[in-house]
Specification:
about 250 residues; alpha/beta; 5-stranded parallel β-sheet; OB fold (Dihydrolipoamide Acetyltransferase, E2P); about 35% helix; elongated; 17 strands; 5-stranded antiparallel β-sheet; 2 domains; 8 helices; Rossmann fold
């Protein structure tokens, strides 16, 4: 069994290593990572492990952010000092959710559960289960408002979302614009990251609505998007250009 530990506390990492080897000395710990950035880089450039032991609170944010940047369909055991993230954790292919300090008994129970699942499902089966859960997680329809009228808009018909002060608009590919009752941060959680990308503070775009990408000054990119007017300048910041290129080429 190949395992990756993601934990930003050195003592906690050492404890997990000891508990894993005590449970089964044949377990191969292939990496110990400390941050979202390190984990994303590793998973994008190496084979994925059989099991991921993942702390929720890392030095650069919540570890759920990892799965917005990397397609990952292997089992996960979450470790945390907090219990309020259990629901979010089980939206992933979560085997267990262990509160810190992690005990040998709790970890053994989780690993036994993992072994039981591994015997019941092939790797392909687990991938399909994970994909099914992810598909259920993302919004497929939005309720938009024009004046006093309400409309249903399928996610695939969305061209982009735009934040204007405290109001968030949904624009479809025909150029129609609706007010929706969502924040941009909440939309990032609800939208399928394979199809939607946050360009900057103001815009989230659907890949199927992008017509053209052009170089822009200061090493940025400018997009031409269906449904947008000339006043709406969709520019990707320098910090997001590399992520955009990886997303667009996935």
């Amino acid at each position: 069994m190949k395992v990756i530990i993601v934990e930003d506390e050195k003592l906690a990492t050492e404890r997990l290593q000891t508990l894993l080897k005590t449970y089964d000395s044949s377990i191969e710990i292939i990496a110990c990572l400390e941050s979202i950035e390190d984990t994303v880089h590793y998973l994008k450039n190496h084979s994925h492990p059989d099991l991921l032991l993942l702390d929720i609170h890392l030095s650069d944010g919540h570890s759920f952010e990892i799965f917005k940047q990397v397609s990952y369909n292997r089992p996960i055991i979450f470790t945390t000092a907090y219990d309020e993230y259990a629901l979010d954790a089980f939206k992933m292919l979560s085997i267990d959710y262990i509160l810190k300090p992690v005990s040998g008994e709790a970890l053994a129970t989780a690993l036994n559960k993992f072994k039981s699942m591994s015997l019941s499902f092939s790797a392909t089966d687990l991938s399909r289960v994970s994909q099914g859960w992810k598909e259920q997680r993302y919004k497929k329809r939005f309720l938009g408002k024009i004046g006093q009228r309400l409309f249903f808009i399928d996610a695939e018909e969305v061209a982009f979302f735009q934040a204007d002060n405290k109001i968030v608009y949904l624009a479809d590919k025909e150029g129609n614009r609706y007010i929706i009752d969502h924040t941009m941060e909440r939309l990032e959680e609800q939208l399928d990251p394979q199809h939607f990308f946050r360009l900057n503070r103001k815009f989230i775009v659907n890949i199927s609505a992008i017509q053209q990408v052009k170089p822009y000054y200061n090493n940025r990119l400018r997009l031409s998007v269906k449904g947008a007017n000339q006043q709406e300048e969709m520019v990707i910041s320098r910090e997001r250009v590399a992520d955009f290129k990886i997303w667009a080429d996935a």
